[in-house]
Amino acid sequence: MSTGSSIEHLDLLGVGIGPFNLSLAAMSDKVGSFTSAFLERRQEFRWHPGMLIPGTTLQVPYLADLVSLVDPTSPWSFLNYLQHCRRLFPFYFAEKFLIDRAEYDAYCRWVSQELPQCHFGYHVEAVRWHEAEGAFAVDYTYEDIPGKAVNAGRYYARNLALGIGTEPTAPAPLRPLLTDPGVTALHSADYLKHRAALLSTPHVTVIGSGQSGAEIFLDLLRNRPSGHEGLRWITRSPAFAPMEYSKLGLEQFTPDYTRFFHHLPEPTRDRLVPQQWQLYKATSAVTLGEIHDELYRRTLDGGWPDAVLQPATAVRAALGRGGRIELTVEHTQQERSETVHTDAAVLATGYSERPTDGLLEGLDPYIVRDSSGRPLVDDRYRLVLDSSIRGDVFVQNAERHTHGVGAPDLGLAAWRSASIVNTVTDREVFALPSRTAFTTFGVTGGDGDRSPEQDALPQAAGV
Questions:
Q1: pTM, 2 dp
Q2: ∠80-86-88 over CA atoms, to 5°?
Q3: Which tens digits make up the pLDDT trace of 8-60?
Q4: I need a surface site. Which of 43, 99, 177, 446 has the fewest CB within 10 A?
């Protein structure tokens, strides 16, 4: 791509290069006579760099790479990456089903550097429908270094794919800590930048019991002296509960379940997602076991580690006082409150979908929304737009309210990308199986078989 001012026409333009749009770039690379570009504001691919703690792994098998679950012969598979790096035999003997996060990050960066349609340093400023061109007009600026714009340009694209990812979030009572320069408080997304300082801090409190919170607590525990751990781990969840990882339980991350969920009424979908927290907000049983093992080892001299683990505990207020942090917490089952003090707080409080309102301001009048004001997303991962718009806007990991808890799951990336490619090209580039789960989600029609809706072929139409 030229960095000079330009106007180009594309079949597909992707905004953002995280794993999901990178998967789409890799899958669409197979299509001949197809023009695409994927733009990312950052200067290179980085996947949660603040949480690449040594030894931490993905929570999904390596087959959940960018392409393999749909196109295992793709040159952009993880196994082909290993072959490219001359590391396939060491990986074979390592017998690793769950790969290190740092290795997944390196793999994705390799793909992003090899695919010519991936471009970094490009900031998309605005998107609007251009009736005369019959395409979306996408204005961008190019920055050779962050914050230094070199030039501007415009694309016209028949279709868009938004993969702008998520952003760190914190509950309202904790947000004042993040803007208080007098205290040490950070979101887990920035953990590695502050790790050395946290290890030398007398007392640290980790808030949140998802996978990130557990990994940070374990890392701090392993690297602080026995008997002087100075750690507290707080979660509002009723227990330090393991992630649902049974084989049949995981079938809720299949295209079959996604299709079933999408057909449910909006109130039912909204009620279901919070109930499924152990599918995506809990902690790996392996990590919980490692924490317990480490705590147990520290009792061998007859003492107990200086570590407090508190489930069913919600932070109601937080403030800085004399360089330390004062937390008002309530045990939600006892309905009793207490005040705890700490020298530093790590907020492992999760992420929220990055809002598209500013980016899509020019399209806002055309976006159809549900009763809660959220954009409707159809079964092909497209925003539902007014019929006057003749192009499609696809979303990646912005459709949990319409497609369920599998929206941010890496295991569904290749399937969603293939569905988008099939839709954009209006042909079956990828032959997708009609059935992916042993579980039947929904009624069977009374004859013991799956309903026609369950076995409806999703191939060219996505899921």
A1: 0.92
A2: 60
A3: 899 999 999 999 999 999 999 999 889 999 999 999 999 999 999 999 999 99
A4: 446
